[in-house]
User: Fold this.
Amino acid sequence: MGQLLVIAFRNLVQHSRRTLLLGGAILGVTALLVLLVGLLNGIRSTMLESATTLMSGHVNVGGFYKVTAGQSAPVVTHYRELERLVRENVPEMDYLTQRGRGWAKVVSETGSIQSGVSGIDVRKEAGFRKVIQIQEGSLDALAEPGTILIFDEQAKRLGVRAGDQLTLSAYTLRGVANTLDVRVVAVAKNIGLLSSFNTFVPEVTLRTLYQLNDDSTGFVLVYLKDPKQVPVVQERLRRVLGEAGNLLMEPDPRAFWFKFQDVNREGWTGQKLDVTTWEDEISFIQWSITAITWLSYTLVGILLVIIAVGLMNTLWISIRERTREIGTLRAIGMQRERVLAMFLVESFLLSAAAAVAGVVVGLALCAALNAAHIHAPAALQLFLMREELHLLVRPSAIFGSLALILGCTTLIAVLPSFLAARMQPVTAMHRVG
Amino acid sequence: MRSPFTFGWVLLLASTVAPATQAKPLNDAQLSDVVHTIDDRQRNSGDYRSLAYLETKEKDKTDTAREAIVYRRSEDEKLMILFTKPKGEAGKGYLRLDKNLWSYDPTTGKWDRRTERERIAGTDSRRADFDESRLQEEYDARFVEESKLGVFDTWVLDLKVKPGVDVAYPVVKLWVDQATGNVLKRQEFALSGRLMRTLYYPSWKKLYSESKKGDVWYPGEIRIYDEVEKANSTIVVLKSVDLRPLETNIFTKAWLESKSR
Assistant:
C-alpha cells in the first residue's frame, strides 16, 4: 500500500499542471458545498430561532373557541389546567409560556394597518430579548399595561414614534366592538415577514381588548430541551389532551390563521384544541427553505457532474499517457488488482487533499461572511425574520461534504482504473505515444 | 305614495309625542313608544326587495361603487344581499340563515360563515344597516335631552344593550326627529365608550305594504362615517323598494349560487 501511495504521490507531482487544475476544481466545489450547507443551515437555524421565539414554541397547544358557529376566536380557555397536563406529561420540556392571539386594526392619527396582536409577558420571555432588536424606546416598558411594541416598517406606515398613541380596534369573542388606546413604548428593527403583520402588547392589555378572563389565553408554547423530540411530544400531547376530555382538531400542518375559514365553516361551538409544531406555524414560509434546499442541491449536482467529467477525462488522459508504464508494470508481475488500486489511490489522494483544502477555504469564507455582518436582501429578510445573514457550519455538515466529494470522485475513478487494469501487458507495451 | 310623511302620520305624532313637542323630557312610556315606533315603522311583516348603491371612500384608496339587491323576509328574519356590479363583484353575496351569516364567492364557489357584525363587502356598512330595526328587542333606551340638529328639533336617546344580547355596538345614541319620528342621526360606540361610527339619514321614504296593511318606512340614503379612521365613509342609497311577496325558495344557497352561473 505504501508503494502505491508513493507512486500515486509522485505521479501527481509529476503532472503538476493537471493535478492543480483538477485539484482546484475539487477544492472549489467542496468550498462551495460547505458554503451552501452553511447558508442553508444558517437560514434554517435563524428561522427556527426567530419563529420559535416570536411566533411559536417547539410544540404549541392552541385552538379555537366559538361562541356561535360562525364566530371563532384563537382562544384557549382554562389554560392553567392545560399547562398542568403539559408539565406532567412532557419531561422533555425546557420551559413553557403562554401568549394571547388577536387581530386588530391599529389606528394612528395619520394611518391604519390591520395586524396580528400578540399578548406577551415580556418578563417571562428571555428568548424574546435575544431576537428583538429595539431601535427606539425600551423593551422593559412593554411590561406596563396599555403599551405596544411595533416594528420599524409599521411605525413608518402609521407615522408614529416611541411615545405616540395608537388605538387598537377589534371585536370581542361575542362580536362586540371594542377599542383600546395604547402607547408605543418600543419600535423594533424589522424582522422580515413578521414585521408586516404582528405587534406585541402585554397580555393583560390583550385580555382587556378582547374581554377575556384570567384563565384564557391564545396558546401555550412548549419549548423542548431537544427540538428533535417535537413529533414524539406532539403525538403524546394529542393523546393526553384527548384522554383528559378535550375535543381536538384534526392534525393540520398550517399556521393557525389559515384555519379560520375551515373552522368557521364547521358547525360546532365551544372549544377545540389544536396541537401544532413550530414547522406548522411557519409552514407558510417553509416552501422557501425547500426551494433553497433544492436549488442548492441542483447547483451542487451540476458542479459534481462537471467535476466527474473532468476527473474521468483526466484519468483517461493519465491512463493513455501511462499505457506503456502500465504494460511494463504488468509485465514485471504487478497484478490487475494492484493496477486498479494504484489509479484509485491516485484519484483518492488528489480528491482528499483538494477536498480538505476546500473545506478549509469554505469554513474561512463562512467565518468571513459572518464577521462582515452582511445585510440579507429584503426578499430573504422576509423569510429569515432577521436583517443579517448568518452562516452556520456544523461538524456533521463538514464530514458530510467531505464524504460526498470523496465518495463521488472515487466512484468516478473506478471505471477508468478498471479499464487500465484490464490491459494486456503486450498490447500496452506496444502502444506508441 | 313615497312622500316623507302623510296626514295620518302627522296625526299619530301629534297624539303620541305631543309632550315632547312642548319641550318636555319624554317619560318612560313615551320613550318606549318612540323606540317602538322607530322599529314598527320600518317593519314590513312580509317580504322586501330593494336596490342598494354603495359608494365607499377610503384613505389612500380609489373610491369604489357597488350595486346590490337586498332581499328580506320578516317572517323568519332572513336576509340576502346579492352584488350585481361591478363585474368583479357580481354574483357575490351574503345570506342570513338561522342567525348565521354566510358569504358566497362565485370565483371559488365557496361559502364562508361570517360574523353578523362583519363589514359588508369591505365597506363601512354592516348587515344591520340593511336589516329591519330591532332597537326595542336589543337595547334599553334612556332619554338624554332635546336638541336641534340643523333645522330639526330632535330627541336625543341613549340606548344600552340589554344583558345577554349580542350586538356589535353596545351603546347607541339616536337623534330622533320630533316632527316625524324618523331617526336622523345615529352614533355607535364601542365597549370602551369610543365613538366608532356616525350614521346620517337625510331622507326617509314610505311605501304601502299589503302584508302589513300599513306604511313601511325606509331610509332613502344612509351616510356612514368611520369615526376611528376619519377619512373613511360609505354612502348607501336604497332605491326601487318593492314589498310584494318574493319567490318562496329565494333564501337558499342554491338560489344565490344560480345567480352567478
